[in-house]
Amino acid sequence: MFEALKPQPADKILALMQAYREDPRDTKVDLGVGVYKDASGHTPIMRAVKAAEKQLWEVETTKSYTGLAGDPGYADVMIDLILGDAVPRSTVAAAATPGGTGACRQGFDLIKMANPKARVFVSNPTWPNHLSILKHMNMEMVPYRYFDDETRGVDCDGMMADLANVQAGDVVLLHGCCHNPTGANLNLSEWKLVVEHLNKTGAVPMIDIAYQGFGDGLEEDAQGVRLVAGNCPEVLIAASCSKNFGIYRERAGLLMAVCSDPDRGALNQQTLNFLNRQNYSFPPDHGARLVTMVLNDPALRADWATELEEVRLSMLGLREQLASELQRLSGSDRFGFIAQHRGMFSRLGASPDQVEAMRRDSAIYMVGDSRLNIAGLNASTVPILAEAIIKAGV
Ligand code: PLP
Ligand code: TYF
């Protein structure tokens, strides 16, 4: 049987992590995988998460199974964090998943169950895992224009023109905030256009939100998803706690199905439970429990929000430093978009050869599509990157 297996393409981002580790140069700069790093290059455990973990060790009395959808208290705090009061709690079915990736996978599975013919419209570009999971599941994907290579902002006209092709029963996959890999995001009026169009056509939005709090703030980053949830009859939301709680390896995510028809809610919940059972029975609990404890304890929550804000502001500071260094070196404003982008990533717009030259000549590791992780920089590596960008002729 095993002889039938074929080599699968490697994940380019994870392969880059490996190449970086193997590079002996001590001046090397890792701008690859989307993991937050502080100025010393360390990915810290957030203070509130560590405190919750200590408490949990004291108070946890059992490791018996949770429910199929995970702990309902986790769903409650996450729904509140993401959706605020955009919709009544009773309209949201939710299940804990292993990370945001698990939430995406379960969401796609639900779409396939509900409409095997659904086409999933994906931004061009999008997170490569969206594409590989959809491909693996034999689901049809249709790219829509998203990034304007000239302005390095959102190509809203192109996006709306491509979304004119959606039909009822299709799904439009959107990034809630901090678009990966470009860093270019919809503003609220653009979100409104999308909502109007979805409601006109009967296509269903699925929102992947993996960076709430990394862009403009916890509330600001949820505006798009709240607008969609409050105004579309059916919405899927795949959320991740990996980044904003810094609990990557704990695998905490949540899939939500929001439905304005109150009669559908119970069946949606049952379907989410069923899908968890088919794929792994019970979702991981440890990370989800830490998130629940942090969000339910006012002091821990306040400390978490403060630390998250420090993280967000440090990335914004690096963006501004890089944009102004590039302005100085190039004598032009053409890199101003770096300060406009939000989240961990910016797509620089460099060619694969230029990306390769920066790696070869300056030991700078960014993804081949010229996505760079802003958090991989610090005040002293920004000028090194800026020089390398100019030297490569970007
Ligand atoms: N969706 C997007 C757009 C991402 O960038 C990520 C990566 O972190 C995820 C989902 C899911 O991450 P995880 O499975 O680690 O929670
Ligand atoms: O895009 C990133 O870098 C993050 C982390 O298979 C990641 O989302 C990268 C690759 C992958 C899973 C997560």
UniProtKB/TrEMBL annotation:
This is Aminotransferase. InterPro entries: Aminotransferase_I/II_large, Asp_trans, NHTrfase_class1_PyrdxlP-BS, PyrdxlP-dep_Trfase, PyrdxlP-dep_Trfase_major, PyrdxlP-dep_Trfase_small. It holds the Pfam family Aminotran_1_2. GO terms for molecular function: transaminase activity. Homodimer. Keywords: Aminotransferase, Pyridoxal phosphate, Transferase. Residues 27-389 form the Aminotransferase class I/classII large domain. The keyword Thylakoid does not apply. Transmembrane segments: none annotated. Belongs to the class-I pyridoxal-phosphate-dependent aminotransferase family. The keyword Ribonucleoprotein does not apply. Its EC number is 2.6.1.-. PANTHER family: ASPARTATE AMINOTRANSFERASE, ASPARTATE AMINOTRANSFERASE, MITOCHONDRIAL. CDD domains: AAT_like (cd00609). Its cofactor is pyridoxal 5'-phosphate.
